[in-house]
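dude i think i finally got it to work??
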Amino acid sequence: MAEFDQLCMNCMAPMNGKSVCPVCGHSAEEPQSVNALPYRTLLQNRYMVGKVKSCNSEGITYIGYDTILRTPIELREFFPATLCSRVSPVELRANNGSEVTYDECLSSFLSFSREIAHFRQLPAVPQLYDIFEENNTAYTVAERVESITLRYFVERSGGTVAWNAARQLFMPVLSALSTLHSAGINHLGISPETLIIGKDGRMKLSGFSIPAARVAGREIPADLYPGCAAPEQYDGNQSVGEAADVYAFTACLFFALTGILPQAAPKRLEDPRLLLPSTLLRSIPPHVVGAMANGLQVSAQRRTGTFEKLRAELSASPTVTIETASLHAVPPTYPAQSSPQDDKKGSMPPFMWGLISCVCCLIVLAVVGVIWLSASNGTQVVSSEPEDVSSLSSQEESSQLSSVLSEDPNMIDVPNLVGSKYEEVASQIESNENYQILSAANKQFSDTVPEGYIISQTPEAGEGAKMKKGTAIVVVVSQGPAIRALPEVAGLDLVAASTAVTDAGFIPTKIEEYSDTVPKGLVIGYQNVKPGDTMAYGSQVVLIVSKGKELPYMASAGE
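look at this
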């Protein structure tokens, strides 16, 4: 392993004999964090441990290096410090009296990690490609994503992000979360630190931890991010589910658009209002303001409960918003409710429509002015707040704001993308001013639709279906069949074989055996299965790698 001794423990770039990394500036003299695995610890005779990246009550995340694939990775070690201790530089042991709890949490860590690994097809979730037990604990190996946090991105962007830019970042993550929750997987730690943005400009969701680490009153201390953790996460007696992740996701969107986080949930239970500078409120589309108000309700029962509903609220065109508002019995003082425009559109002359549009614009300004000066339920904004701060405190108020939107005359037919190849459609969209396509974060298995082709879209196409020009169309792309055939790997080197297995949708691991016929370093075949056998997407397969011929003196020594 001498060839890896000169790698920087922070970025895994060659140090070239220098004491300070020429790439990241990390000093070779900087010590490892207390209680962490020593630098260059080798796990599974393959994964080298680097610098600690982050830690919480569940465990420690390291920057690492895959010595087989020769690429940086992210290593996660299960290490609940309140339940166990290191009894050697690498081995853990449960504390006296905590053995049962430690084993239960370890089992939860393994099962939760395996569930996440099955969703390697989601671009908005870093790929998890190995899970193993060693040193009386467990580890996961994930792709290393060169990225910055959402918090740093917002700060670097001047303190806020425009809605059009935020939409491109957040909607693919929303789709991924919807897919995860459909399988019963909660994140419960979404925050400006766990949302990361890669060099390609796309946002991913990192920082997965077992539920016990994200709810108060459980087996280990709760790792709760103030302003993002939902109120029910602070109460161990309440059920916690998708609505909690909706709260955190919406809080992060709120942060991106305004530069501030909501107050921590315990404080919002006393005063649920969301205070916004009026200058920012003017720049955010009203239907987005309404969606955020609904997603940040302190009551889980009143809050937007699913990501699909949140997606609909964030993607609502003015026409759809008006129709929705009318179903919620908005007070008649807002004209948009009492004007069935579609029915009268053919009977009024064009100049009347222009006049109505002007009147509606004046009403919008008047309503926004009222909102700036008043809080929810007709109460005055607290005098200690600046005069240009507005309060968004109820679903009713956001519905009123949405209801006054006039119909946008710049409507187009919804294009039918179902059955098209996603890559082809995406490559042509840059020159299309009529609509956008969100990244294919939400994929589904299909035995009938070829891999890479669009299965469905939102909004749906159809006779008479309209949408506002510039609307983002969310497409679901086929992942191909859920059951796949194993590729031929015999005779390939480990890197090529691992790539072939990964491309086919499986997770490769390896063992080594002596062989009289296969040269050292080449793959003999699979363990217990053979090429052409079918397995579920995401299944782990074992590659048998040749150690070359077993020399006679080795056999004698073994006897």
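The domain at 32-143 is CATH 3.30.200.20 (Phosphorylase Kinase; domain 1).
im so relieved honestly
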